Amino acid sequence: QVKLVESGGGLVQAGDPLRLFCLVSGRTFGLYDRAWYRQAPGKERDLVARIHWITGMTDYPDPVNGRFRIWRDNAKNLVYLQINVLKPEGTAIYYCNMNTTWGQGTQVTVSS
Question: CA-based Rg of the chain, rounded to a whole angstrom?
Fold first, then answer.
C-alpha cells in the first residue's frame, strides 16, 4: 500500500520562497506520475505541478508556471515542490498525489 506524507508547510510572507516535501513509501512500482495539488479555503483542489516518474518531464498550469518547480529524488523516495515567489492567494493546503493516493496535506499560509 502506498503512503504519501507531506511536510514543509508553515506561515510565510508574500514573496518568500518555500520548499515542500513528499515522502513516498510502500509499493510504488506502478510508475505513476507524481503531482502536487493545492486547495484554498472554499475552493476546489487544483493541480500545481506534475512530474513523469520515468522521464522526469514536468508540467505546470499557467498560474504557477515560472514560480513553482517539481522534482524527485528516486533514491530517497522524495518529491519536492519549490515555490519561489509565494503570493497571498497561495494560502492553501498542499497535497501530494500519486494515482489515487493522496497525502494528508501540509498547510501553507501566506501573509501579505
Answer: 13
